[in-house]
Design goal:
Largest sheet: 2 strands, antiparallel
Radius of gyration: 17 Å
Protein name: SpoVT-AbrB domain-containing protein
Pfam families: MazE_antitoxin
InterPro entries: SpoVT-AbrB_dom, SpoVT-AbrB_sf
CATH class of one domain: Mainly Beta
GO molecular function: DNA binding
Helix content: 25-40%
Distance between the termini: 31 Å
Keywords: DNA-binding
Length: about 80
């Protein structure tokens, strides 16, 4: 499945209907963009807001520790 679309002046791209249908994408769904092998890759992001608070834990992680964990993850994901 391949389609050609244009980039608008605002940097927006319309995802072709055939691709939106294939991935069941709806308005306001979120996509994760990354560069892989010098190509732009977009992946649908699952909405986790519906399960927030569903899993209980007895441990506590401070905001500072959370930020540190996220920073390390991002650095490892986008390391050059």
């Amino acid at each position: 499945m391949s389609n050609i679309t244009s980039l608008t002046q605002k940097g927006q791209v319309v995802i072709p209907k055939s691709i939106r249908n294939h991935f069941n994408l709806k308005a306001f769904d979120k996509l994760f963009f990354r560069i892989e092998n010098n190509k732009i890759v977009a992946e649908p992001v699952n909405d986790t807001n519906g399960v927030f608070g569903m899993f209980k834990t007895n441990s506590y992680i401070s905001k500072q520790k959370q930020k540190s964990i996220v920073k390390k993850f991002i650095e490892s994901k986008f390391k050059k």
